Amino acid sequence: MNIYVGSLNFKMTEADLREKFEEYGEVASAKIIFDKYSGKSKGFGFVEMPNEAEAKKAIEELNGAEIHGRKIIVNESIERPERRSNFRGGDNSRRGGYSRRENH
């Protein structure tokens, strides 16, 4: 099960995150998301636990727990729909909204 972990202390490491979740069972991966420009933590991450029962127990017990001085948010991660990589704006099939001004 993929687990979202939010409101993390910005100094928390992936090893810290893994260690905390390993108290509840096997952890396949633990990843903290970093800003690609500054290299600083964005304050959230994901933990993958293969055993669903262990994952649910971790979610139940860690959601709202204080770790490194912050109350963390823990819940099941819901996969986002695939993004369109070549998206350039709104739907051009309708004439409306904001578009180039036409002379009448």
Helix % is: 10-25%
Give Rg in angstroms: 20 Å
The helix/strand class is alpha+beta
Q: Which sequence of strands runs across the widest sheet?
A: 2-3-1-6
Q: What is the molecular shape? A: globular
**Secondary structure tally: strands:** 6
Q: Which spans of ≥5 residues are poorly predicted at pLDDT below 50?
A: none
Number of helices: 2
**Mean residue pLDDT:** 87
Largest sheet: 4 strands, antiparallel
Beta-strand content estimate: 25-35%
Helix and strand element order: EHEEHEEE
**In whole angstroms, how far apart are the ends?**
58 Å
Structure description:
The protein has a domain at 1-34 and 54-61. Helix content is 19%, strand content 26%. The chain has helices spanning 14-22, 52-62, and strands at 2-6, 29-34, 41-48, 66-67, 70-71, 73-76. Strands 2-3-1-6 form a 4-stranded antiparallel sheet, covered by helices on one side.
What are the key terms here?
single chain, 104 residues, alpha+beta, 4-stranded antiparallel β-sheet, 6 strands, 26% strand
